[in-house]
Amino acid sequence: MPISTPATIRLPLDIPQVDVLATKQTQDGKFLITVESRQETTKCGVCQKEIACNYGRGQAVRLRHLPILGQETYIVIRPRRAQCPTCLYQPTTTQTLKWYDQRSPHTKAYDQHLLKQLIGSTVADVSLKENLGYDAVVGALARQVDDKVKWDEIQNLGTIGIDEVAAQKGHKNYRAIVTARQDDGTVLILAVLKDRKKKR
Ligand SMILES: [Zn+2]
Asked: Looking at the whole model, is its pTM more than 0.85?
């Protein structure tokens, strides 16, 4: 092999139930990973019954994902579509998958990554470091708000941290990110609480 050919590696992709169709790196270094879903069914948007995905594919969507070797990484997918055989007017539905929300430009893993970046930092800092719009960082924060702590996911509480992040530029409304640092050093996000007003 020529000396200039870089060594390559193969890694498992951390997304469940997909096949990788192609991977490429753009001239500016970004990784694009094209995948398709292995899941054959989805829930009808009207009757909620599980129906077969037999109605082709939608437009390709590009979702920001966790970085590979420090480079921006995107998952590209054309979501499968389904038509309900039993509902009136046979409505069509786009397949929903666990690892991303249809209205989000990020995978859920990337949203979690952003939240961890926000700990001890500001939205503007994370926006700059991730080369992402301010609103995209706030969007990730907003999608994770659930007002409830997921106690059942915690093995041990370790050190609990609460970080406040300004939810909007120039506003006095804050989101609080509640985290637990486990004994093995991993940081779990327990909850994102919304719109706390800072006391003076
Ligand atoms: Zn239906």
From this structure: no
Q: Residue 1 Cα, ligand 1 centroid: separation in angstroms? A: 56
CA of 83 to the centre of ligand 1 (A): 8
Indicate whether 84 and 111 sit together in one domain. no
For residue 84, report the distance from its CA to the centre of ligand 1, in Å.
5
Q: Express each pLDDT in 131-145 by its tens digit.
A: 999 889 888 877 877
Note whether 117 and 138 are same-domain residues: yes
Domain residue limits at 180: 106-200
Q: What DSSP assignment string belongs to 124-172?
A: HHHHHHHT--HHHHHHHHHHH--SS--GGG-S---EEEEEEEESSTT-S
- Final residue belonging to a domain, choices 103, 131, 155: 103
Cβ atoms within 10 Å of 94's Cβ, excluding its own:
18
Q: How far is the CA of 55 from the centre of ligand 1 (A)?
A: 14
